[in-house]
Amino acid sequence: MRSEQSILVLGDPLVMRPRRLADRVLARAFGGRLDGELAAGAVPESSVLRAARAQEIVSLRLRREMAGDWDHLLRVACANATDERRLFICADRIAAAAPAIRELTTKLVAPLPVRARGVAMASVLLTDAAGPVYNENSRLTLAAALAAAISQLDPALPLTDAA
Question: Theoretical Cys-Cys bridge with 118: which of 7, 23, 54, 152, CB 3.0 to 4.6 Å?
Answer without folding.
Answer: 152
